[in-house]
Amino acid sequence: MPVVALYFDRIEGILGKKISKEKIISTLPFIGLDIEEETKDHVNVEYSPNRPDYATDYGIVSSLQGLLGIKTGIPKLKIKKGKNSITVNPSVRKIRPFVTAIEARNGKLNDETIRQLIVMQEDLHNGIGRRRKKSSIGIHDLDKISFPLRYTTTGKDDKFIPLDSSKEMSIRDILERTTEAGIKYGYLLANFKKVPIILDSHGHKISLPPIINSERTKISNNTRNLLVEVTAMEKNAAEDTLAVITNVLQDAGFELFSIKISGANNSTPLLKPRNLILDSDLVNKILGIKISISTMVSALRKSRLDAQSKGQKIICTIPRYRTDIFGPMDLVEEVALGYGIENLEPTIPRSISVGQKAKITTTLDAINSVMIGLGFSEVMNFGLMSQRVLCDYTKRDSSKIVSVSDSKSQEHTILRNAILPGLIDTLSKNIHESYPQKLFETGVVFLQRNGDISEEIHLACVSAHNDITFTEIKSVLQSFLKSISNFGCRTPTSTNPMFLVGSTADVFVFNDKIGEIGLISPEVRDNFKLRVPIAGFEIKLTVNI
Amino acid sequence: MSQVLHPIEQKILKLLLEKQNLTPEELSEKTELSIDQVRRGIEWLRFKDLVQVNESEKHFVSLGKRGLEASDNGLPERQLVNYLKSSFGSSCEMNEAKNQLKTEFSAAIANAKKNGWIEIHENRILLKGYHDLTPEERLIKTIVSRSPEVVSVDEIEDKNALDSLKKRPEFLTINSTKYVTVNLSEKGIETAKNVSSNSISISDSIATTLARDGASLSDTTPVTDSITVKVARAIDVEAPAPIVFVARSHPLQDVINEVREIFIGLGFTEVVGNLVQSSFWNFDALFTPQDHPAREMQDTFYIRNLHAKTIATKNQISNVSQIHKKGWKYDWKLDETKRLVLRTHTTCVTIKELADRKPDEARIFSIGRVFRNEKVSYKHLVEFNQVEGVVVGKNVTLRDLMGLQREFYLKMGMKKIKFWPTFFPYTEPSLQSMVYNEKLEKWVELFGMGIFRPEVTNPLGIKNPVLAWGGGIERIAMLKYGLDDVRELYNNSLGWLRNVPKCQ
After folding, report:
1. Is A149 in the same domain as A123?
2. Angle between helix B251-265 and helix A359-373 axes, rounded to 10 deg
3. Are A335 and A216 found together in one domain?
4. Among partner residues A347, A377, A448, which is closest to B497 by beta-carbon distance?
5. Closest residue in chain A to residue B306, using alpha carbons only
6. CATH number for the domain formed by residue range(s) B251-498
7. Distance between CA A267 and CA A408 in Å, rounded?
8. A29 and A89 within one domain
9. Measuring CA to CA, how many Å separate B252 from each of A132, B342, B500?
10. φ and ψ at B145, to 5 degrees?
11. Scanning every residue of chain B, which has its alpha carbon at the shortest distance from the alpha carbon of A366?
């Protein structure tokens, strides 16, 4: 989850009231932030991606103000009508169809504000923007731009100077090799012959969405006026993104001016709040409390929403940037937060239900106790394991193994279809421990059958010591089966590369083959660098056992 | 009560008080205990810090093959002198001597020359000077005279003779033996002084029997003296006995069982489900949009090349698809729901159970393995255990959910808890519980909880509110066993598995 650094001196300035450091720290969790690290001058907090407005300290302070009662209700967004415009050429329709933008004037940027803006931009790219695929943001120095702008397409051989470069490059190079952003996100445009581009009235390229801006419009500490543009695959995503930034810019002291957007189904963003009706009964029913409508209204205002009672209902006004609110249930949570989670006293719900284990759990409990009674200790291995242990070292067939895509770890790439290999691996990790070593494991194995995956529960055990014999392990198997179900078994001789030739057998109960038993072959032991002889068996646990 | 000593120990102590630095063999000889008894006694005493055992090495010298020949026939130089004496004019041609001495010839010439016994003139050897016994010859004599006993290197005074003979191949054999000597520690001296000579002599026979068969005394042992009875029955109860490694369940399994028992105690019934699930139940049914970052391959294990054939009822699929299109406003795709995943939570099992049964009231839970495509580290595993409980009821509330949490933690022995708001994609409101850990002296984040969103329950026909809560089991196991690295739970190190205390 994304992390934001909150500097106490800045917070104090934005809050508008002197609040102790301790109070701030103890309030942060109650607006839904996790404290990651606390230092003398700042605290790092982690926020959930459903609240993109927490990507900067401005958004966080806005919530703090509410909960601390400094400012409540919706933060009013003031957007003056601007003179500038962007026209959209229909050629972007199949590539990246939507653009939206806002002007922010007469503000001041310092290093920390710029840092916060850049972090917010990245968080929005990854969150709402889905790694820039769905929406992406460009922030520019407004004074370097001559309007009107055109959002259109161009060929990959066209050239401009990308951000943080000194020389002109072809778009193809920018996407494929010369810029970090191009290498990382270039794939988003790889399948198109043309790419989206924003041009100013002189034809200067100011942005290559969703990859990179031009060096020409780069912002600095001296920048006073900004242009923020958002391009997107969906209109809604574009405006969601812009709404979050707009609020932050207003909090940071900028004056906002609208930009007229037109062409190819695009339109000027409204960024207006919306209304949702909340039934006061729902609040009390879900939270398990009895509070008055006026208490609910004030709680909602503390959550920085506007609320008005109308009979038993409350009309809630939700600012455009709160994209996380879908319906009444989300408003119930807003009431709970404003009311204070700490004010909700836990209760125990009455119930006449009687709990019960699943049948398989009861069976496995019995199996475990019998295996322990036979002197075997339980171990637990992973179901997702390595080809090396499951097949290569144990000389097992790997053709029907189920594997997963793009595992981050070489040790966890395929799903086990047997437990015994993992047990042998466990023995190999314990060669310095005293013998005899007798281990067992029960667990799910995965089998591929006719293009489907079926899951079975298996039991496997190994016994390792210098005097091990086939008879000993067969005795364990027979005693186990007798003890669990009073079943007998047959063990006709078989061949299996994991076991020693002549000392291995299939295990049959009635007419079903349920497993294999034998002495582990010396070659397999060599692969695991195990010197001590090993015997083991693995059986499928069916309905009856 | 003073320390009880085994008769074997008493005998050894007593003897050592008279004479320190004895070897086990010497102790055995003088105490008339067997060497095994003495060795065992020394180990016991050493464990109690009553004796110190010093290990050292001794070298012994004996005659080698040529040394033995030399002892019978004289050294080659002596043989040469004898031959010359018996020859005419006490001299001979080189070749004659060579024939006589064969392979010893050059050694004989070199040493006789060194001793000043001969002179060589134009291929003739002439005897000269006195021919007293050399130091080497004396050394051989000494060694022979002590035979069959071996002679310790330390006892040999003429070290030059020894070195000189050592340089001549196969004359001497040097053997080294490691041996131990035992002496009393300060504590041992005190204890030995208190050993009553009476008790040893009286219980001698019993002690010997006892030590020999290692069994306890039977009641039929003939004893008359009251002191004897005391000493004979008083075995060393403080001596360590061997540890047996007990076969047992895995410590993590114990925690899983404990958690399961608590859920059952709270009235929950267990449901189980497959580890491989369709994306439909793992994500779509839980209102997780198809382009949500959690669904990307960076976070989730997708099964390679296989897709779900049947996923849900037609109705379930169409309702879920509608809510996605309405709520998230995107192009929802059926194919995406068929991708098979290793379940990322147990919620897919509980939600399917609720969707299929549509109970008005229920308490169910699911516990088992879940998977995340993460880099394995001290705090992350790709595969771990999760528990999740749900309560369905007409009048269940968020406070009830908090109450169930509190009850669960109380039963786990965790008394101080608090709640913070948080976010989960499929619950609203959502809370997380913080539990105060006495050992770590800090608040630890444990289970998360919330009420299933209407966007989850409505499409599946679940009418009443559903409280849901759960979290990872390994976290609890780490707190319980005091581990800082979650990987230790799956190392299967027998050292840990055999020794970690069962009850904590």
Report:
1. yes
2. 140
3. no
4. A377
5. A451
6. 3.30.930.10
7. 43
8. no
9. 42, 21, 11
10. -65, -30
11. B249
User: Is A532 among the domain residues?
Assistant: yes
Model pTM score: 0.76
On whether any CB of chain A is under 8 Å from the CB of B268, the answer is yes
B448 reaches A (C-beta below 8 A)? no
Report d(CA A276, CA A157) in Å as an integer: 50
Judge whether residue A21 has pLDDT over 90.
Answer: no
| Domain boundary assignment for chain B | 7-50+185-233, 62-177, 251-498
Q: Write the burial class of residue B75 (CB in 10 Å: 0-12 exposed, 13-18 middle, 19+ buried).
A: buried
Identify whether residues A365 and A286 lie together within a single domain.
no
Quote the domain boundaries for residue A41. Answer: 3-67
R_g of chain B, CA atoms, integer Å:
44
Q: What is the CATH number of the domain that holds A218?
A: 3.50.40.10
Q: CB-based contact (8 Å) between B272 and chain A?
A: yes
Is the alpha carbon torsion for B255, B256, B259, B260 positive or negative?
A: negative
Contact A333 B421 (CB under 8 A): yes
* Count of other CB atoms within 10 angstroms of residue A17: 10
| Consecutive H or E run containing A228 | strand A226-232
Give CA–CA dist B290/B491, Å, rounded.
36
Report the complex ipTM: 0.89
Is CATH 1.10.10 the right assignment for the domain spanning B62-177?
Answer: yes
Instruction: For tokens 């976010």, name the residue.
Output: B423
Residues of A in contact with B489 (CB under 8 A): 380
> Mean pLDDT throughout B174-181?
82
Shared-domain flag, residues A142 and A219: yes
* Interchain contact B274–A (C-beta under 8 A): yes
* Mean pLDDT computed over every residue of chain B: 85
Whole-angstrom Cα distance, residue A124 to residue B111?
A: 99
Q: Which of residues 458-477 of B touch A (CB under 8 A)?
A: 465
- E strand or H helix that includes residue A131: none
Structural domain total, chain A: 4
Q: Give the residue, B71 or A417, on which the prediction is more confident.
A: A417
Q: Is residue A475 part of a domain?
A: yes
**Cβ separation of A347 and B303 shorter than 8 Å?**
no
Please indicate whether, in this complex, the C-beta atoms of B329 and A344 are within 8 angstroms of each other: no
DSSP string of A35-52, one letter each residue? EEEE-SSEEEEE--TT-G
Q: Given CB atoms, is B383 within the 8 Å cutoff of chain A?
A: yes
A256 domain-assigned:
yes
- Same structural domain, A317 and A401: no
Closest-CA residue of chain B to A133 = B291
Task: Evaluate if residue A157 carries a pLDDT over 70.
Answer: yes
Whether residue A374 is found in the same domain as residue A511: yes
Share of chain B above pLDDT 90, in %: 40
Determine the length of chain A. 545
Q: How confident is the model at residue B201 (pLDDT cuts 50, 70, 90)?
A: very low
Q: Which residues contact B309 (CB under 8 A, 6 or more apart)?
A: A451, A452
Are residue A400 and residue A506 in the same domain, yes or no?
A: yes
